[in-house]
Amino acid sequence: MSFEYPQDLRYLDSHEYVRLDGDIATIGISEFAVDQLGDIVFLELPEIGEAIAVGETFGTIESVKAVEELNSPVTGTVIERNDALIESPEQVADDPYGEGWFLKVRINDAAEIEDAMTADEYRALVEGE
């Protein structure tokens, strides 16, 4: 299967992605991660107003195969969360880079995402190049 790796995103080795728009970061998980998880049955996300920190766990995603922690690529405050996914977590698989986002975070320091992988670096990691 061929996966998409949008060039405008940065990625963590734990498969979260971040899209930066000014000081707002949108966080989700990659198409590759969705494929590895299989059928997603549960998603736990922080509340609006909660602070999250780069490298720390902000929630969990559960599939029929595994429970995985979600790690933050940025430090900031949650300003929006995708409640539709909490009610119907399987929808993550339909559009992980679009409607399948998890959180929107007002970030403290945009330079943090420089530590995350580019699309090409992430592709090389997951495709074992």
Give a written overview of the molecule.
It is built from three helices and nine strands. Strand 6 (57-63) and strand 7 form a beta hairpin. With 129 residues, the protein is of the alpha+beta class. It has a single domain, classed as OB fold (Dihydrolipoamide Acetyltransferase, E2P), CATH 2.40.50.100. It is globular. The strands form two sheets. It has a six-stranded antiparallel sheet. Strands 4-6-7 form a three-stranded antiparallel sheet. The modification N6-lipoyllysine is found at residue 65. The glycine cleavage system catalyzes the degradation of glycine. The H protein shuttles the methylamine group of glycine from the P protein to the T protein. Residues 24-106 form the Lipoyl-binding domain.
Helices and strands, in N-to-C order? EEEHEEEEEHEH
For the record, give the distance between the C-alpha atoms at the N and C termini, rounded to a whole number. 15 Å
The CATH H-level homologous superfamily: RNA polymerase II/Efflux pump adaptor protein, barrel-sandwich hybrid domain
Beta-strand proportion: 25-35%
Q: How many individual β-strands?
A: 9
Please give the CATH class: Mainly Beta
Strand count, sense and barrel status of the largest sheet are: 6 strands, antiparallel
| Poorly predicted ranges | none
| Continuous helix count | 3
What shape does the CA trace take?
globular
Domain module count = 1
Question: What structural class do you assign from the helix and strand content?
Answer: alpha+beta
- What is the architecture at the second tier of CATH? Beta Barrel
CATH topology grouping = OB fold (Dihydrolipoamide Acetyltransferase, E2P)
Function: The glycine cleavage system catalyzes the degradation of glycine. The H protein shuttles the methylamine group of glycine from the P protein to the T protein.
Cofactor: (R)-lipoate
Keywords: Lipoyl
Pfam family, one: GCV_H
